[in-house]
Design brief:
6-stranded antiparallel β-sheet, SH3 type barrels, globular, Alpha-Beta Plaits, 2 domains, 16 strands, alpha+beta, 5 helices
Amino acid sequence: MIDGYSSGFCRSFPREEAADGGAGRRWYAVFTVPQNEKSAVKHLHLREIESFLPTYETVRVWKNRQRVHLVLPLFPSYLFVRIGSRERGRVLESPGVLRIVGNRRGPVPVPDETVEFLRSDLCTKKVEPYHELVVGEKVRIRSGAMRGLEGVLIRKNSNLRFVLTVALINQHAAVEIGAEDLEPAGG
């Protein structure tokens, strides 16, 4: 954990959930001011909005050869909020938030399975951004909590990687996963 941000920064508010049982709440992607994702999460926290910022840890070497450990957003300029329709205004009023991702009809929810995968132990261990989606075999996770989630299989340094695509925000993440946990998606 660096600067208070571990892989996958999440703020939850159980007392709000208890009041309505979480009914009517859905996950939405939120587009933020570039490089202000962590600040936006803090402001959402002050407004008691459940939010999740997927992050990853990396080491950068500066020009003076100093190695620095950084915690960066997995999807730059995006975070996720779990809200009901009445909470949209509070999200949009938050500093750093530009809009809730959607189409002409309004905000489009992100499937719960996608957010749960990003929050899972599988994803928090060896995840990194993946910017160029290459042609590969489409696969599905065959067991566990993420069963049924589909992505593309790639290789990196002789390890298998599962590339999760969050189509709504056109972003990708590569997660190391064992071949025994995958099966062909079958078209």
